[in-house]
Amino acid sequence: MRDKTRENVAGYLFILPNLLGFAAFILFPMVFSFVLIFTDWDYLKGMSGFSFAGLGNIVKLGEDPIVWRSLLHNVVFSLTSVPVALGLGLLLAVILNRFVYLKTAIRTMIFLPYMSSIVAISVVWRVLYNPSQGPVNSVLKALGVDHPPGWLSSPDWSLAGIILMTIWTYIGYAMILYMAGIQGISKDLYEASEIDGASGLKSFLHITVPMLKPTTFLTAVTLIISSFQVFASVQVMTNGGPMRSSSVLALYIYEQAFELRNMSYGATVSWLLFLFIFVVTLVQWRSQRSWQDQF
Amino acid sequence: MYKRSAYKLAAKISMTAVFLLIGILMLLPFLWMLSASFKNTSELFRYPIEWIPDTLNTANYEKVWNGAVSFSVYYKNSVKITFFQVLGSLITSSMAGYAFAKLRFRGKETIFLLYLATMIIPAQVFFVPRFILFDSLGLVNTHLAIILPGMFTVLGTFIMRQFFSTLPGELLEAAKVDGVGYWRMFWQICLPLTKPALVTLLILTFTWHWNEYENPLILLRDRDLFTIPLGLTTFTDENGTDYPLIMAASVSALAPLVLVVTIFQRWFVEGIASTGLKG
């Protein structure tokens, strides 16, 4: 009996530092943020600036075209950057794993962009994308493109420019996860298919791709969650412009909460972002389970 | 047979050449940045690109490191903040991970489920309430406001719990019979066995926090408190179109990390691959 009490006390003591941090910086802010949806808070008045706002913030959210435009940009951003990065990452991983010398060195070269500070590489890409003289357009002109895009200064191309840079950073991440996944596939499978006379492409399509489904799922989920939170690259490269053409939710939350000091409204938009990530992850989770049922 | 292996060798060598090219292609933005940082504005956009400038002009680096606010200030701040965040995360995650995996106490499952449930909540949800919290505590514009929340990680706790779970229960039962206390069991028996997990956690928390941008952006105001990413954007805003100078600042912000990642690449790759999780 005394042993049990001792173990209980020890358990609580061990988790105490962690639990305090969790309560103070995750649980409490979460609840607080949720309450903020139903309030109006005048930041300048301090703690006495709170007033009840009912569903006002949610109504405002529904009628705010910038919110929905930003959300649309988020969806476009994820639906393009994630599949492209997954495809290229898989291709690189498969070839790099078996048919290339200097594997480690090349792997490091490909995944360096992913490890780098997004802020720093965004600063660099902003200059690379310079529409009149930047190296990207100089190369395009040399290749015969007479009217290369205006990239970050063009409403039609700003989001595409950010997406391209993001793909460049995501490829290395996807490749590393796929390389680890490939290590887990039994060599016997390939040998068996070779005896059956299957070509390399066939064994890629019928062994590698299906066996890597769990890796694809994990990589897709993590990349989608993080791509929905894209902020630094947009803020540094375009600040959402020109004319909101590259605005995303995380940036709009920051603008509302910390530039315009609409703290309550910023919090409200952040819960929309949560809702969206939650639904997307749930859908992915379900489709993953139905995939597995097929096997 | 001999012919076939020669063919394979040739194929592998040519594929290596292709992949070296791909690798260099991936590094081109970095190489351009490095080369531009030694140029002056008139040379910068010349085409064809001059990868090696005629004269190595180091004036830009002078300005970055010996200007009004030197980059060394940002480095000092980033090192200090990251150090405490990583150390704190290692301590809190391993202690809680051990308890969640190996000790029986009331409410354990409920608490752990609550932890996991919060993992899906995006960082943006916490920005406003944390700002208000730190504002009311008078901690806005202090490093403490960045360090404190960074000392806890739900994901890190989860990783450590998973690892502690793999340690055999008999080990602890035997220690218990010998009258070893819980703290010694944790510190002297379990922790030394979890070194690989600790290294993974070290790598992950370092990666998350070293490049952290949003929290410092929201919570810091004074320039001499800024971290490297925040210092870089401020520097960029002030220098408008002096691109070579901005490139020198970017090189200064990136170089040490690139060096660390290259040297310890195996650890970084394993750390990221083993958990598959992005910060």
Summarize it.
The complex is a heterodimer of chains A (295) and B (279). By secondary structure, chain A is mainly α. Chain A is 75% helix and 2% strand.
Structural account:
The complex is a heterodimer of chains A (295) and B (279). Chain A has 295 residues and is mainly α. Chain A has 2 domains: 2-52, no CATH class; 61-293, MetI-like fold (Orthogonal Bundle). Chain A contains 13 helices and 2 strands. Chain A has a two-stranded antiparallel ribbon. In chain A, helix 3 packs parallel to helix 7. The longest helix of chain A has 35 residues, at 2-36. Chain A starts with a helix and ends with a helix. The model of chain A has no long low-confidence stretch (mean pLDDT 89). Chain B has 279 residues and is mostly helical. Chain B folds into 2 domains: 2-63; 68-238, MetI-like (MetI-like fold). In chain B, 74% of the residues lie in helices and 0% in strands. Chain B is built from 15 helices and no strands. Chain B has helices spanning 2-36, 41-44, 59-66, 71-102, 108-117, 124-136, 144-150, 154-165, 169-177, 182-193, 195-210, 214-219, 228-238, 243-263, 265-275. The interface between A and B is large, with 98 and 97 residues.
Topology overview:
The complex is a heterodimer of chains A (295) and B (279).
Chain A (H helix, E strand, L loop, with lengths): L1 H35 L2 E3 L8 E3 L3 H8 L1 H35 L3 H13 L2 H11 L6 H8 L15 H26 L3 H9 L4 H12 L1 H16 L3 H6 L11 H11 L3 H31 L2
Antiparallel strand pairs in A: 1-2
Chain B lengths: L1 H35 L4 H4 L14 H8 L4 H32 L5 H10 L6 H13 L7 H7 L3 H12 L3 H9 L4 H12 L1 H16 L3 H6 L8 H11 L4 H21 L1 H11 L4
Family (chain A): Belongs to the binding-protein-dependent transport system permease family.
Protein name (chain A): Sugar ABC transporter permease
Keywords (chain A): Cell membrane, Membrane, Transmembrane, Transmembrane helix, Transport
